[in-house]
């Protein structure tokens, strides 16, 4: 308990929109989750590889779980709200009403989910351009990013959706708009999923080359021409309408959002590690990598200068920690455990200096999974004190937006807490080194097989 504190406790709300549910937490200034609630959201699969959601359903769930976690709390102590969400695509018309992303014309189904793969042919054409913006996504754009989905909408739903659309939001940005009425986007979403770069902004030549020149003509009004750093305060805070919906006071700070995996990274990577005898103690945050382990794994490493890593997304400036470049690997990597070592070695060969792993997400609750990560990589693994690190990350955004902390870095150090530290068991090193050699051979063979099949598809015998 913090009984010595004379001033009343301050609280922050973190709201996390996952693929199948929305969660909220009330978090104090020490990163302790005081209350937690969850509600499922609907997913439609009208045909294979098409996954859709409803922004109205998602917002209703956000309101329901938030009301639950703030129930009975002195509202004057709640200082800020932060959102994170999957990188799904939300489409609304010029009056901000939901617009169907399907042939059935069902307007309430206005979200193309992150895991939707309808735009395979579009992403193949985008990658064939070899445009310079692709160097920021490891050389190849994923079908799960937004440009191929936008192109699919233009080519398949031109009259019913493309021409009527007023705004295309990444889901985290839709939520901050819904809360504040401000259409500003987060650097995290536009840099990681839309090809924006922090130094040059949008690249007109890319959008023209892929056939989406219409977005350039209206000065990017539909996809965002005001960009904020994650954790920056949006507009004048909660609108009266949103405050009523969420059960929160009008005007409290709302932060520019993060993608869900990045919020997990934020919740663990900046923790104060003093006294835990870790190699990253008294080292910059760039010596750490955050690993978010769920249905897929995501490895987040930051650097002070841009590092281009083959096959790894980024470098993305200020996409997770303001002022630092982010590399993101392994979202869809095979062989999770040995794959982690492969990703770390690839990042280190390119210029990263990593000595400690920070794990969060569902699989980090499995002791064997955690121990094997330490053994295979030969690096200590740090687990967050709070199991819900993603929600703590979202609350850190709200805390930063409130002005109670001078920076995201300060909020991370105060609110991210070390739980258990797992050291590598060096007796297993020889065994895992041999397994890793086999893994590298398999990766090499997989590349050869893919090359053979690619040459067949392109008509080369």
Question: Mind explaining what this structure looks like?
Answer:
This protein has 461 residues and is α/β, with parallel strands linked by helices. 35% of the residues lie in helices and 20% in strands. The protein has a seven-stranded mixed beta sheet with strand order 15-16-14-13-17-18-19, sandwiched between helices. The model is unreliable at 1-6 (pLDDT under 50).
- Gyration radius from CA atoms, angstroms: 22 Å
Strand sequence of the main sheet, in spatial order? 15-16-14-13-17-18-19
**How far do the termini sit from each other?**
71 Å
Q: Compute the average pLDDT.
A: 93
In short:
The protein is an alpha/beta fold and 461 residues long. It is built from 15 helices and 19 strands.
Topology summary:
Layout: E1 11-17, E2 21-28, E3 33-40, E4 52-53, H1 55-70, E5 78-85, E6 89-93, E7 111-112, H2 120-128, H3 146-156, H4 158-162, E8 165-170, H5 171-180, E9 185-186, H6 187-193, H7 204-209, H8 214-217, E10 227-228, H9 240-246, E11 253-254, E12 258-259, H10 260-269, E13 288-293, E14 297-303, E15 313-317, E16 325-329, H11 336-350, E17 356-360, H12 367-377, E18 381-384, H13 389-402, H14 408-415, E19 418-422, H15 429-457
Parallel strand pairs: 1-5, 5-11, 5-12, 9-10, 13-17, 17-18
Antiparallel strand pairs: 1-2, 2-3, 4-7, 6-7, 6-8, 13-14, 14-16, 15-16, 18-19
Helix pairs in contact: 2-3, 10-13, 11-12, 11-15, 13-14
């Amino acid at each position: 308990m913090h009984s010595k504190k004379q001033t009343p406790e301050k609280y922050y709300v973190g709201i996390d929109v996952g693929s199948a549910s929305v969660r909220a937490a009330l978090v104090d200034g020490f990163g302790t989750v005081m209350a937690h609630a969850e509600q499922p959201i609907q997913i439609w699969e009208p045909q294979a590889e098409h996954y859709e959601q409803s922004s109205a359903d998602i917002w209703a769930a956000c309101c329901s779980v938030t009301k639950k976690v703030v129930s009975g709390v002195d509202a004057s102590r709640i200082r800020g709200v932060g959102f994170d969400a999957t990188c799904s695509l939300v489409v609304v018309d010029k009056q901000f009403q939901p617009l169907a992303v399907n042939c059935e014309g069902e307007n309430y189904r206005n979200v193309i989910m992150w895991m939707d793969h309808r735009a395979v042919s579009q992403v193949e054409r985008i990658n064939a351009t070899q445009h310079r913006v692709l160097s920021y996504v490891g050389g190849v754009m994923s079908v799960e990013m937004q440009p191929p989905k936008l192109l699919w909408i233009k080519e398949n739903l031109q009259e019913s959706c493309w021409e009527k659309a007023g705004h295309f939001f990444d889901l985290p940005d839709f939520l901050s708009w819904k809360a504040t009425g401000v259409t500003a986007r987060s650097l995290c979403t536009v840099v990681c999923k839309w090809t924006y770069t922090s130094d040059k902004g949008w690249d007109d030549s890319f959008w023209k080359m892929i056939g989406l020149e219409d977005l350039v003509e209206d000065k990017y009004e539909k996809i965002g021409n005001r960009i904020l750093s994650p954790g920056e305060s949006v507009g004048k805070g909660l609108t009266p309408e949103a405050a009523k919906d969420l059960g929160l006071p009008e005007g409290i700070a709302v932060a520019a959002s993060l993608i869900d995996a990045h919020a997990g990274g934020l919740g663990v990577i900046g923790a104060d590690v003093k006294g835990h005898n870790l190699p990253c103690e008294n080292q910059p945050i760039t010596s750490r990598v955050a690993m978010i382990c769920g249905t897929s794994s995501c490895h987040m490493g930051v650097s002070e200068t841009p590092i281009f890593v083959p096959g790894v997304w980024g470098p993305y400036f200020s996409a997770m920690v303001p002022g630092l470049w982010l590399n993101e690997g392994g979202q869809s990597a095979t062989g999770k455990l040995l794959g982690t070592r492969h990703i770390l070695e690839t990042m280190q060969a390119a210029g990263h200096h990593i000595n400690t792993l920070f794990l969060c997400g569902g699989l980090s609750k499995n002791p064997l999974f955690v121990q094997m990560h330490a053994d295979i990589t030969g690096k200590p693994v740090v687990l967050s004190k709070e199991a819900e690190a993603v929600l703590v990350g979202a609350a850190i955004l709200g805390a930063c937006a409130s002005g109670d902390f001078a920076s995201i870095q300060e909020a991370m150090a105060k609110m991210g807490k070390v739980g258990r530290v797992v050291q590598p068991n060096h007796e297993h090193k020889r065994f895992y080194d041999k397994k890793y050699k086999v893994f590298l051979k398999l990766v090499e063979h997989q590349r050869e097989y893919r090359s053979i099949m690619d040459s067949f598809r392109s008509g080369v015998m």
